[in-house]
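Section 5.1 Outputs to date
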Amino acid sequence: MGAVLRGMRNPFRHRARAVVVIALLALVISLLALLVQAALAARADRLLHLADGRLANDLRRDEPCLNLM
């Protein structure tokens, strides 16, 4: 555990350590970007289905009936 704390104090002290830190940061950022892109694609796909009318009919069936009279 002490070695980890010493490495966290100055991650850019050695060239090899700097490469590892930058590679890990790049991996985390790219995975986050991939998740955001997938979420936006799923939302666009749902909107296309709504515009097409296929999903709109399903949503109308699931709506609660507010007509009490």
